[in-house]
Amino acid sequence: MEQDHQIRQLLLKFANNQCSPRETEILRQYFEDNPDQGVLPEVQEVLNMSGSGDFTTNADEAEALFAKISAKIGKAQVRELPPRPPKPNLWWAAAAIFVGLLGVSLYLYKTPEAIEQVQTPIATQNSIILEREDGKVEVLSEDGQIRLTDKEGEVIGGQTGRKLTYQKKDKVVKELVYNTLRVPYGKRFELNLSDGSRVFMNAGSSLKYPVNFSKTGNRQVFLTGEAFFKVSKDNSRPFQVAAENLEIDVLGTEFNVSAYPEDLKTSVVLVEGSVQLAIQDNTQENIIMQPGQLASLWQRDSNIEVQDVDVAPYIAWLQGDLVFRNMSFENILKKMERHYDVKIINNDAELAKEIFNASFGSEPLVNILEYFKETYGLNFVFQNKNTVVIGYKEEE
After folding, report:
1. Count of CB atoms within 10 A of residue 215's CB?
2. Residue 56 falls within a domain, yes or no?
3. Which of these three, 270, 291, 314, is where a domain ends?
4. What is the pLDDT of residue 75?
């Protein structure tokens, strides 16, 4: 009740443009912590008030707004998936796949028009690609070994298994030469940069980076997707990650960045050290993060939101595990697509907005789908080995 009173008072102050930046952040944090805030239009309105300068209301209207929000919040819930049964035997998994494929054949026979609604393809290739600045493209196998050389034939690094390492060069770099590493869905890869920094790349990600950093200035790399960074400390040359429209500056630290273009937000989780965040082409004051914090930049606005979190679920992917915290089912499906290198077509619009907490370790995709089916009556079929259809409708 005390918190309700505080939020009510802050809403009234906000309505009259009297909130301090700290009070505004408290309001934003309050609704961000609510797992159902994304589907509440009233909350969206409050979240978008910041900086708009055109929101006006009186005390009665603010009270009514708070009452509506509180009423919906009281009904909101996060679905905690119950403990999973023991892992099935191999014969059970094989049988499940067979049943799924049998269902697919019926699905293809009965509803061909539904298949035509497939949207953009997910993955066009299943190879780890190294793009050199000179245009040369190399395909890296996960168990391969190669030696990297520059245009003069000098060795600059090499690959051993799922790790690509660049050598440190003492000579002065006159011009930065960039390579780009692309990791497809269903794979992970480690990249060791020439300054000693280590980058662990998640599925569906790419990183553009200098073969050798210059002796002065920032050590800048460009990320699309998700990666965990262990940055080698160098006080004279800050390390900078450009991810979507967010800039992350560090000296030496460990942090995770998730910046997939198809996601609604770019997020940074700090494990160790400190980082400074800034929005590109934005005058908002830079934010300094502390260990154990999550910073989020939503596409819908230009403000960075920071909250304290347990960092473990956000870096579980480093061990190949799938962990979801206060995540909508549609976002869970995005992560599963990347993790398993599949396309998932979801026709269950109602389930898409449901919020879940779940941990699945490194189980096969069919086990996870079967578990959702047993627990929530989820219908699914395998259209083929790389495409799953959820919420399919059989003819009556």
Report:
1. 11
2. yes
3. 314
4. 38
- Percent of the chain beyond pLDDT 90? 40
If asked whether residues 262 and 188 sit together in one domain, one would say yes
Q: What are phi and psi of 165, to 5 degrees?
A: -125, 130
CATH for 223: 2.60.120.1440
First to last CA, the chain: 51
Whether 179 and 211 have beta carbons less than 8 Å apart is answered as yes
Q: How many CB atoms lie within 10 A of CB 366?
A: 21
Whether 395 is in a domain gets the answer no
* Torsion from C-alpha of 5, 6, 8, 11, nearest 10 degrees: 170
Instruction: Return the higher-pLDDT residue of 99 and 82.
Output: 82
**β-bridge mates for residue 200, sequence order:** 190, 228
pLDDT at residue 1 tops 60? no
Please give the distance of CA 390 from its chain centroid, rounded to a whole number.
22
- The per-residue pLDDT for 28 is 63
pTM value surpassing 0.85: no
Q: CA 77: distance to chain centroid?
A: 22
Is 176 contained in some domain? yes
pLDDT of residue 55: 40
At 118 the pLDDT is 31
Is residue 307 within 8 Å of 276, Cβ to Cβ? no
Q: Which of 282, 314, 346 is the last residue of a domain?
A: 314
3-state class of 189 per DSSP? Answer: strand
What is the C-alpha separation between 348 and 350, in angstroms, rounded? 6
Looking at the structure, do residues 166 and 295 belong to the same domain, yes or no?
yes
Asked whether residue 157 falls in the same domain as residue 85, the answer is no
Amino acid at position 201, single letter: M
Domain extent for 200: 128-314
